[in-house]
Structures are given as C-alpha cells and as structure tokens.
Specification:
357 residues, mainly alpha, flat
Length: 357
C-alpha cells in the first residue's frame, strides 16, 4: 500500500473517530429531551435527534438496522456542521457512560495501530521483527544466565552454610578453651595477689626505715640551707653596693663621653662647613675648566679646519701651476714641431721652384 492509500485509510478512520466522539454525547437522556432542545442546539439538530430517537425505538422493535444506521449517519452529518453542537451536548451531560468511553479508547488504540501498520515500511517491519527476535533471544539468554546464577548461588549458600558450621564449631572450641584459660588465670591471680601482699609488707618495712633516715637527713639539709641563705643575703648586700658604685662610675664615664662628643661635634660641624665651601669652589673651578676646555677644543678645531683649507688651496695652486707648466711645455713642443714643419715645407717649395726654372 502506497502513502496515498494509507492517507485515505487514515482519513476514513479519523472521520469515523470524530463521528463516534460526536455520537457518544447522544445518549438516552438526550434523545428523551430531543423535542425540548430546539432552543439549545438548534431546530435542525433537534429534528434529527427526534428522527434518531424513532429509529432507535424501531431498532428495538426488530425494525431493520439500515434505518438506524442511516439515521445515525444523518445525525452525525448535522452535528458535524454545527461547531457548537458538541460543546452544548457535552454541557447537558454529567459524564458519558463507561462503556462508551471504553469503546472510544479501544477504537483510538485500533486507529493508532492501523496508523502504525500503514506508516511502517517492509524494511522497518522486518527490522522490528528482527529486533523483536533479538530481544527474545537476549531474554532467553538472560533467563538461562539467571538460572545458572541461581544454581551457583544455591551452591555458594550451601558452601557458606558449611563454613558457618565450621566457624560455629571453632567458636565453641574457642569458648571452651577461654573458660579453661580464665580458670587458670584466676588461680594465677590468687598466687600473684599473695606474692604482692608479701612484697607490699616488705616494702612498707623498708619504707619506714628509709623514711626515718631521710627525715634526719632532711633536718640536717634544712639547717645547711638556712646557713646558706644567711651567707647569700650578706653576699647580695655587698653585690648591690658594688653594683651601685659601678653604676655611678658608668654614669660619670657617660657624662665625660657626652662632653667629649659635644666638643668633637662642634669641630666636626666647622670642618664640614669648610669642606662644603671647598667642594663648592672645586665644582666652580671644574665648571670653568670644562668651559675653557670646550673653548680650547673649539679653537683647535677651527685652526685645524683653517690649516686644512690652506693646505687644500696650496695643493690646488700647485696642481694649477703644474698643469699650466705642462700645457706650456706641450704648446712649445707643438709650436716648435709646427715651425719645423713650416720651414721644411718652405725649403721643399724652394727646391721644387728651382727645379722648375
């Protein structure tokens, strides 16, 4: 089936669903009050409801179902034309019957199933079937694994139960051994208590004798301590006197130091003033020296430039003189050659003239 045919089928199913939804509001109560609904839903709908009521009554009286079906189709067409008919009929009802609602839900599920079937291609159907088979195989495999794991768990539980029994037996043996050890410990504790009592009595006797000796020694040491305190007190008095004398001497030394430092401070300030004046003069001399040095360098530079200019001019004069001398020498040589050629030409002309005569 192509997409156009599928669309047409779904369009028919949608129209059927709309018709069922509209007709679901028409129950026995609405049909009974059909003659009084002209002002509510309109005269045409009221008349159609009356016709449908008669057809429904005839259907119960073994009248042909074609009449009832035709009446239902006509009622659906009229309700479909009115945009407010469904809301008005719905307002008249508290709720639709459960059977009708179940019927509508079932038809909607069938419509969705048909839509899914019509919109699913062969490839998608095969893919879904393969996926379903794969899921079934996985579920079967998972079930087998579950059974295997349950068997393993049962085996582990039995092993764990055996281990628990062994542990319980070991605990019982340990408890028995602990009781024996506790009884032995009680016996040893009694022996230790007796030994401790005897040692305590012996220690008390030794303590009494040692305490008497230590008391006498303490009295002796207390007397020596009193004598030491008296001697230390006298020594402390002498030390305080020495300290007071030393402090007085230190104070005198500090006063002498302050006087010496005062005189030295005054001399230092005078020398510092002289030093600052000398430094100022030195800076002034350095500034003048720098200025004179700059002037001297400028003078020397000007002299060098002047001497260079003079030497350059002298060299140029020498070059000009040398060039003039060279030109004069060349000219004299040229003129001498020229005169010689003239003389030679004259002599030749005279010879030629003499020959002609």
């Amino acid at each position: 089936m192509n997409s156009l045919e599928a669309y047409r089928v779904m369009q028919v199913l949608d129209e059927a669903m709309d018709g069922l939804r509209l007709l679901s509001h028409v129950d026995s109560e609405v049909l009974e009050a059909a003659d009084t609904l002209g002002d509510v839903v309109g005269e045409d709908i009221s008349k159609s409801l009356l016709t449908h009521k008669i057809a429904a009554a005839g259907c119960r009286g073994q009248v042909s179902h074609d009449t009832f079906n035709a009446s239902s189709m006509e009622l659906w067409r009229i309700l479909k034309k009115s945009p407010t008919a469904e809301s008005k009929l719905s307002a008249m009802q508290k709720e639709r019957s459960p059977a009708m609602m179940s019927y509508l839900q079932t038809f909607e599920k069938l419509r969705q199933t048909a839509y899914k079937k019509l919109t699913t291609t062969v490839e998608e159907d095969n893919s879904n079937r393969e996926h379903f088979m794969e899921v079934c195989m996985r579920e079967k495999k998972a079930l087998e694994q579950r059974n295997t794991l349950e068997q393993q768990l049962a085996l582990q539980r039995r092993e764990r139960q055996k281990e628990m029994e062994q542990i319980t037996n070991a605990e019982d043996r340990a408890a028995s051994e602990l009781e024996d050890i506790q009884e032995e410990a009680k016996m040893r504790q009694g022996s230790l208590d007796e030994t401790s009592r005897r040692a305590k009595e012996s220690d008390l006797e030794k303590f009494s004798s040692e305490n008497g000796k230590l008391g006498k020694e303490r009295e002796k040491l207390m007397g020596e301590l009193a004598e030491l305190r008296a001697r230390n007190k006298e020594m402390e008095t002498q030390a305080r006197k020495k300290k007071s004398k030393g402090e007085q001497e230190v104070e005198a030394w500090l006063n002498d130091y302050d006087r010496d430092m005062g005189s030295k401070e005054s001399a230092y300030r005078d020398e510092l003033a002289v030093y600052e004046r000398v430094v100022a003069q030195l800076e002034e001399y350095q500034e003048k020296t720098t200025q004179l040095k700059a002037e001297r360098e400028e003078y020397e530079r000007q002299e060098r430039l002047r001497m260079i200019a003079e030497l350059t001019e002298r060299n140029r004069e020498k070059i000009r003189n040398k060039a003039a001398l060279t030109i004069q020498t060349a000219w004299k040589a040229y003129w001498a050659n020229k005169l010689a050629e003239i003389k030679k030409a004259k002599k030749k002309a005279k010879k030629d003239k003499g020959k002609k005569k």
